[in-house]
Amino acid sequence: MSVVRCDGIVQIYKAQDVEVVALRDVDLMIDEGETVALLGPSGAGKSTLLWLLAGLLRPSAGRLWLDGTDLGRLGQRRLDRLRAARIGVMLQNPARNLIGYLSAAQNVAFAQRAVRRDRRRARDLLARVGLGEAGDRPAGRMSGGEQQRLALAVALANKPRLLLADEPTSQLDDGTGRAVVELIKRAAALDGTTAVVVTHDTTVSEALSRTVTIRDGRVGAEGRRGEDFVVVGREGAVQVPPEYHHLLPPGSMARIEPLEDGIALRRAES
Ligand code: ADP
Hints:
Blueprint: E1 4-15, E2 18-30, E3 35-39, H1 46-53, E4 61-66, E5 69-70, H2 76-86, E6 87-90, H3 104-111, H4 119-128, H5 144-155, E7 162-166, H6 174-191, E8 194-198, H7 202-207, E9 210-215, E10 218-224, E11 227-230, E12 254-259, E13 262-267
Helix pairs in contact: 3-4, 3-5
The structure holds adenosine-5'-diphosphate.
Adenosine-5'-diphosphate binds next to strand 1, strand 2 and helix 1.
């Protein structure tokens, strides 16, 4: 069974009198222990998808399942409980994931209040993100990089079923960035944690098991084991990747040629 299942997800933001369609008909299945890099240009809808998966936002249309539970059918209290116990979230602004006046250890302990407190796991996580000696310093006084590493330890505190991270290495140097990636992969391998990570950092995306590229609110492409594929959408729509726009520019007309195992698109001379 998939840990994440999105079925026809649509997200529309209403700002004053304009509507922004941030996601249109997103279908996505992610299995246990998969580590997915969510890629795509700015404004494509990546953060929106992450917020929906985190249960922080309810979709305008479509359905979303976590471990077989239809999130749309849960009332707010049950959704909050499920989030606290089973979803680890690391938002883009590292300070927003933390309680500023608490120390590193207290922040991890606070995250564990939803389940059984596990001091050994807390100590191990802090050591792995290089904050084993962080002492009593409040999180609010830590550097951006320290906050980001602590936010990951907090997000993993409960062995979540699903880890969601928005640009988790944006404030880290290469070495600590790699440690963060290793920790995500370790959680996947040891605890079966499924991870969805929004990232522009190629060292992150190359290290994870799968890439999903969002463009213009749709899943446009997927990559597995180093190979990239376009995704045929609900109505048969296919996005021509930008690197081929010089051959088949947006707005151009093409002839379809059936082949034995697919089709070829050839630009029609106008
Ligand atoms: P990404 O993370 O890929 O940069 P986002 O999910 O942040 O993309 O945004 C997708 C689209 O939705 C953009 O056009 C953005 O301007 C719009 N958007 C995001 N959040 C809001 C909001 N709270 N209100 C109105 N529009 C929003």
